[in-house]
Design a protein that fits this description.
This protein is α/β, with parallel strands linked by helices and 426 residues long. It has helices at 2-19, 135-146, 213-217, 236-244, 262-279, 295-306, 346-352, 357-361, 382-391, 410-424; strands spanning 26-32, 38-39, 45-53, 56-57, 61-69, 75-82, 86-91, 97-107, 110-120, 154-157, 166-177, 180-189, 195-200, 221-225, 283-293, 312-316, 368-373, 396-400.
Length: 426
């Protein structure tokens, strides 16, 4: 009995020790002197840098920093000693955009950093991306070709994932042509009825999906899709091998050939997913939304632009927007195709325009949009997201979480979920 008690005590102790790991004792902060992180063009921003250990300023700490227009810093300093643990920096912009300060320190063999990226008249930012004359015809043709084929849906119940309120299915249906399929996880309320629907489109990568059971439990049909034409219920190690192998760098495939671009089947597949939802007898025939983050933010824009049935959409830190900003030495969206490229291939620049979220955003006129992103995002720079938001002609709202990078705060997640549930009730 003593051995059993001792073993249980050790297990509990180990669990407690794991729970105690939270954050860092040494923290760098960079704080602007405007609470909303926004300034007018020509106005000087003052940044306060602090390095603290156990909440108190750390004296004689050595830092390096860079500052300047986002993605194009023009000030770089190394080995700067902060005698009292603080430093004041100033900067400004002469045109709308974002000014970023990034501070790094190596303390006792460990690296620490912090960023502050402030906006200069961000509501006046306009995208640089140009639109092909045949943009609408290109996508009309792509969808028309795909819709020649029946969806041929295959729906398999996943009993182990079902709950008392929701049935969960692994599904697939024809995308561009027979044999080319979209796979996903469908969740439906068990109670008979007529329901609104939500399509969830994925961020970049290759992974397993589990479906949106929670939203379905609130009285909605949900469909979460993968984009790679493979089942979404495999072991994660399978997807890891694909990302390292055949799908490595998939976002760059045939950038110079719009008809063969990897994302052609992805965008078509997102719209075909709405076709699939519309084919379900439980859909109420009225309300359907789309949402996703990063790559999924782009796909939300594309789906809302190409399918008039979409009633609401919610892109979060939307990637794949305003690639051409890089050609003007301005921060561009992921995958940063032309960033620091001295002589970009003209064919690639022209081809990317068919897959730039900006050109989709300009076509969203009726669906209700909810946008959210952070100023400190170095994957999807806020300038590209703000310019895209500004380009949307339809009803929209913007919820900023300035301090976030390419991640979520809990409050941001909760607000996003609230928007989705409210729109599903419209």
């Amino acid at each position: 009995m003593r051995k059993i008690v001792s073993l249980l005590w050790l297990v509990m102790l180990a669990a407690q020790m794991q729970a105690q790991i939270r954050g860092n004792n040494i923290v760098i902060t960079v704080e602007p002197d405007h609470a909303d992180w926004n300034y007018r063009v020509g106005e000087t921003a003052t940044f306060t840098v602090e390095v603290r250990r156990s909440g108190t300023l750390l004296p004689n700490v050595v830092v390096s920093y860079e500052a300047g227009p986002d993605m194009y810093p023009d000030v770089k300093k190394d080995n700067v000693t902060l005698k009292d643990g603080t430093l004041s920096l100033k900067g400004k912009l002469s045109k709308p955009g974002f000014y970023r300060v990034k501070v790094r320190a190596r303390i006792e063999g460990k690296d620490y950093d912090a960023t502050c990226n402030v906006g200069y008249d961000p509501d006046k930012l306009q995208p640089y991306t140009q639109c092909p004359a045949d943009f609408d015809a290109f996508w009309k043709k792509a969808l028309s070709e795909a819709r020649q084929y029946d969806l041929d849906p295959q729906i398999q119940l996943m009993p182990e994932r079902c709950t008392k309120d929701v049935d969960v299915y692994h599904v697939s249906f024809v995308n561009q042509r027979p044999g080319n399929r979209i796979y996903g996880i469908l969740c439906k309320p068990k109670k008979a009825g007529s329901y609104p629907a939500l399509l969830r489109v994925p961020g970049a990568g290759v992974r397993q999906y589990f479906g949106d059971v929670y939203t379905a439990s609130q009285g909605a049909i949900t469909l979460e899709i993968g984009i790679h034409g493979i089942p979404v219920n495999l072991d994660q190690s399978t997807y890891d091998r694909m990302l390292d192998g055949c799908l490595n760098g998939y976002w760059e495939v045939n950038l110079d050939e719009p008809e063969k671009n990897f994302y052609r089947r992805v965008v078509v597949g997102a719209v075909r997913s709405v076709d699939f939802i519309a084919s379900l007898p439980e859909w109420n025939g009225k309300t359907v939304g789309v949402t996703g983050s990063s790559q999924g933010g782009f796909l939300s824009l594309a789906t809302a632009a190409l399918d008039s049935r979409i009633t609401f959409y919610a892109p979060v830190h939307d990637a794949m927007c305003d690639y051409e900003a890089a050609l003007h030495k301005s921060a561009c969206g992921w995958p940063h195709y032309f960033y620091n490229v001295e002589k970009p291939d003209t064919k690639k620049v022209e081809g990317a325009r068919y897959y730039d979220g900006v050109n989709f955003a300009k076509r969203i006129k009726n669906a209700k949009g909810w946008f959210s992103f952070g100023y400190n995002d170095d994957v999807v720079p806020p300038g590209s997201s703000y310019a895209t938001y500004n380009a949307v002609p339809g009803p929209k709202q913007l919820s900023l979480y300035q301090q976030t990078g390419h991640f979520w705060y809990q409050e941001q997640w909760d607000e996003w979920e609230q928007f989705l549930l409210e729109r599903l009730k419209d």
